[in-house]
Write a structure and sequence with these properties.
Blueprint (H helix, E strand, L loop, with lengths): L29 H22 L1
């Protein structure tokens, strides 16, 4: 039987319904802006890795 990898240090997330919501710059706070920048940088790295 496969052992499940569990991270017991991960915070519990309440109210997550799996709904995908669109990013809104008008409603974004600083954390949202930084997360968006990190996601875009990760996308660029992934694309560059594919191109090699």
């Amino acid at each position: 039987m496969a052992k499940k990898n569990r991270n017991n240090d991960a915070p519990a997330i309440n109210g997550v319904d799996g709904e995908d919501v669109e990013y809104s710059a008008e409603l974004a706070d600083q954390d949202d802006i930084e997360a968006r920048e990190r996601a875009e940088a990760a996308d660029r790295r992934a694309k560059n890795r594919k191109d090699i």
